[in-house]
């Protein structure tokens, strides 16, 4: 019922027909009662604005139930008859009414004729004594700004120049949104861009003046169209504290009658609050302070709510004050005599200049007289409501009683909405932290951790975020990551933060205020506004000015810094910011602090450092580069299996032994991890050392076998193909090969035949006494020697395996190819053999003796 009445009231007031509100609300209330109580169904309410009047339809879901009428003369019976009173009211108050049926609904409607008045006039307000009239700061300036259909400024009056400092040529053609510092009335969901599209709108927003400061204004928008049908919006703007010049007056409720019907009273709570649903806490509070201000004909009003633990009061809604910068500011409930210690009782201050600091929220606002009353539920203090005026002595105990009566009617609804908001915040916080923990636990990469932290905080916790990191105690904080909810602002924000010194790395837990960004933003906006004089004709410069001002507005609010601490040392800082004149709620700061503790940035840093060390050590197990062998083409392809691995159990090497001789090797250590890597390093370095000492192939491998066995429990068996390469003057190459348990090397001749180039012998690291021998082959021009590890031959797809025969078939098709082309074709064949990623390391060593060049 209350929802229907509030809907009709606000709709008619939005259309500028407040004088019809009372009649419409009474009729709607009676018809909805009929639908809900008598028909027993839900009610649908529809408001229509026509050229003749306002039509309100109330429908129910029981079309079979007829409207109770008597006789053909439409007699409605007595007022006590079921269903009769609502229709009696329709007949008495409405200019037209009727009933319409559909297969699913029954509609009872009424129409109220529009009052005959000149276009553009408003209803009259109360006649007040001169002493109670609103104060004006000198001549009242009403800025007239016309906005075209694209949102750009088409005209700019002289009063607009006086109010905001911009000449008409500086702003014409620019979007109005470029000048707005905060885009909407605090607590109201309609933004400035949406308001410009409405046929009629009233509300508050901030205009950033040429000096960079924000001028709070009250605006009245009217959408019109010219003779050619082109729509535009005419905006009348006055300073916020002069809003009475433009604001549509609200009719005061009557204690005894509504709409001229005696015996029916209007709920003061409904008239005082209006339409926001109880769960819409911000809308409810904003409407409350606006109605409180209007009810006592005040210049401003404010409302404070108790925090979760009810030990402090938090500023949640204001109107008529210079700015909303104190939103969410907290004060103790008992802060001493004369301050908020009196919050539990109504209080009237006739002149705040005589009691400095009595109401800290009003310090520096020009307000002199104030009345405050508590919001209480079951004896508990749940909030405080106050109204203030610029003149002294405006309020007495009578106004305090009126305000207290209204506060008592709204306290329960406000408390219900507050508790609902706290419950939603708790659930949202738990959900947020669970999701954040899962995401942060899923990575130990430092850069990815920083990116995740920023993405989780924006826009959930803040409008923008910057992460600073500290490499070591002797280093200065470094700006590592910047994110803004508007991607177009990221570059400007990064540039702004790079020009100011980073915050001090203080290890004290909790959030602390950092004013440097907002001060830098204000200075940048001021300098840009000064440079804009006479430069608006340049599109490029104008665009840059708009970008700078938008960036300044985006970071001009409250900024907080939270330390990222590990082992009692600050290793980074999480910086969160709000746009101009916006502040953080304590619950949001506590949530951000919890997130900073869960970030595990130190673990990510240590992991990144260890990963870098691991990768460096892994690279040391492979040769840095291959030597150039005369008259021999050499190509190596190496693929380590596993994420983050550069070297596995497989390895290769090619190195000069002495003049005209080169050693080559390709091997596979059993197992993975550090133990296998240790054997890999031992084998590669031992091979080079022993070969250069003059030992032949069998002696080199026998001594390497002994070294592996000396490792004891850490030893791993090793398959190894080792050989010596001797390029000859006739263009051929002689190879001496020992194949210790390794896949046999394959030789490709010019005629396309493929044969093994060695015999299998025992692997290393198993038996103490080995008797190995070497085999000698000669590679003629055009011949290829292919050496691989078992990751190539044991490539599987289900039950199929590539095998030695499959590798030989691939090699047979490589006649005439270079060593690099042979290795690439083998790898491509292996990758195509199976769709799944390789589970084993793969190494390919191809050597080819090129054919002599033909002249």
UniProtKB/TrEMBL annotation:
Query: Coiled coil: which residue ranges?
Result: none
Which one of the record's GO molecular function terms can you name? phosphatase activity
**Any keyword Hydrolase?**
yes
UniProt keywords (A-Z) are: Hydrolase
Q: Where is the PAS domain?
A: 144-174
Q: Name one GO biological process term.
A: regulation of DNA-templated transcription
Under the heading CDD domains, the entry gives: HATPase_RsbW-like, PAS
Protein name (Swiss-Prot/TrEMBL): PAS domain S-box-containing protein
């Amino acid at each position: 019922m209350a929802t229907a009445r509030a809907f009709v009231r606000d709709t008619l007031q939005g259309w500028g027909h407040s004088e019809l509100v009372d009649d419409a609300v009474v009729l709607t209330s009676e018809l909805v009662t009929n639908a809900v109580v008598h028909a027993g169904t839900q009610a649908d309410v529809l408001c229509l604005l026509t050229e003749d009047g306002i039509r309100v339809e109330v429908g129910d879901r029981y079309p079979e139930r007829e409207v109770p009428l008597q006789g053909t003369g439409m007699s409605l019976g007595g007022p006590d008859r079921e269903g009769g009173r609502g229709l009696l009211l329709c007949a008495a108050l409405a200019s037209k009414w009727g009933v319409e049926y559909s297969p699913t609904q029954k509609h009872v409607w009424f129409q109220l004729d529009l009052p005959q008045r000149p276009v553009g006039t408003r209803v009259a307000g109360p006649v007040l004594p001169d002493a109670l009239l609103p104060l004006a700061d000198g001549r009242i300036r009403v800025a007239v700004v016309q906005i075209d259909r694209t949102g750009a400024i088409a005209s700019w009056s002289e009063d607009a120049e006086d109010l905001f400092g911009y000449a008409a040529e500086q702003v014409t053609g620019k979007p109005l949104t470029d000048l707005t510092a905060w885009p909407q009335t605090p607590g109201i969901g309609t933004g400035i861009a949406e308001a410009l599209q409405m046929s009629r709108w009233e509300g508050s927003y901030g205009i950033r003046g040429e000096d960079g400061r924000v001028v709070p204004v009250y605006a009245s928008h009217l959408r019109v169209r010219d003779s050619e049908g082109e729509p535009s919006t005419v905006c009348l703007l006055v300073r916020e504290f002069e809003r009475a010049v433009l604001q549509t007056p609200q009719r005061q409720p009557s204690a005894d009658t509504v709409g001229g019907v005696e015996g029916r009273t209007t709920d003061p709570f409904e008239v005082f609050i209006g339409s926001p649903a109880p769960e819409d806490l911000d809308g409810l509070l904003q409407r409350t302070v606006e109605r409180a201000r209007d009810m006592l004909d005040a210049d401003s009003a404010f409302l404070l709510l108790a925090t979760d633990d009810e030990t402090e009061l938090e500023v949640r809604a204001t109107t008529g004050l210079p700015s909303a910068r104190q939103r969410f500011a907290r004060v103790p409930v008992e802060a001493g005599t004369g301050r908020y210690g009196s919050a539990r009782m109504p209080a009237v201050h006739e002149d705040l200049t005589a009691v400095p600091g009595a109401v800290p929220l009003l310090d520096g606002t020009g307000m002199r007289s104030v009345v405050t009353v508590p919001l209480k539920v079951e004896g508990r203090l749940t909030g405080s409501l106050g109204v203030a005026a610029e003149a002294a002595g405006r309020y007495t105990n009578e106004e305090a009683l009126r305000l207290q009566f209204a506060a008592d009617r709204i306290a329960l609804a406000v408390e219900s909405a507050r508790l609902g908001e706290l419950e939603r915040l708790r659930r949202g916080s738990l959900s947020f932290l669970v999701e954040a923990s899962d995401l942060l636990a899923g990575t130990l990469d430092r850069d990815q951790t920083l990116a995740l932290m920023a993405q989780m905080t924006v826009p959930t916790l803040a409008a923008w975020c910057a992460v600073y990191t500290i490499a070591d105690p002797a280093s200065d904080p470094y700006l590592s990551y910047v994110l803004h909810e508007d991607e177009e602002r990221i570059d400007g924000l990064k540039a702004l933060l790079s020009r100011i010194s980073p915050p001090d790395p203080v290890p004290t837990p909790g959030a602390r205020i950092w004013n440097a960004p907002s001060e830098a933003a204000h200075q940048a906006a001021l300098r840009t506004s000064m440079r804009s004089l006479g430069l608006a004709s340049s599109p490029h410069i104008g665009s840059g000015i708009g970008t700078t001002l938008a960036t300044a507005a985006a970071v001009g609010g409250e900024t907080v810094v939270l330390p990222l601490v590990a082992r009692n040392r600050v290793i980074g800082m999480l910086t969160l910011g709000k746009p101009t004149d916006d502040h953080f709620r304590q619950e949001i700061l506590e949530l951000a602090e919890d997130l900073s503790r869960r970030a595990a940035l130190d673990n990510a840093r240590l992991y990144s450092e260890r990963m870098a060390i691991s990768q460096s050590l892994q690279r040391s197990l492979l040769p840095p580069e291959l030597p150039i062998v005369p008259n021999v083409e050499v190509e190596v392809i190496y693929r380590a299996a596993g994420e983050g691995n550069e070297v596995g159990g497989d390895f290769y090497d090619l190195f000069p032994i002495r003049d005209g001789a080169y050693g080559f090797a390709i091997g596979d250590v059993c197992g993975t991890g550090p133990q296998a890597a240790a054997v890999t390093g031992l084998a590669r370095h031992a091979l080079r050392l022993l070969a250069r000492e003059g030992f032949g192939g069998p002696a080199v491998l026998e001594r390497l076998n002994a070294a592996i066995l000396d490792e004891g429990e850490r030893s791993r068996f090793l398959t190894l193909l080792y050989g010596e390469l001797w390029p000859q003057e006739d263009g051929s190459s002689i190879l001496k090969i020992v194949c210790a348990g390794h896949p046999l090397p394959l030789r490709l001749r010019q005629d396309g035949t493929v044969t093994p180039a060695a015999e299998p012998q025992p692997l290393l690291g198993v038996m103490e006494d080995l008797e190995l021998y070497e085999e000698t082959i000669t590679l003629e021009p055009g011949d290829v020697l292919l050496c691989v590890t078992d990751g190539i031959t044991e490539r599987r797809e289900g039950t199929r395996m590539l095998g030695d025969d499959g590798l030989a078939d691939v090699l047979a098709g490589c006649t005439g190819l270079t060593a690099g082309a042979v290795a690439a074709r083998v790898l491509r064949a292996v990758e195509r053999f199976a769709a799944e990623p390789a589970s084993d390391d793969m190494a390919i060593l191809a050597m080819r003796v090129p054919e002599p060049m033909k002249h």
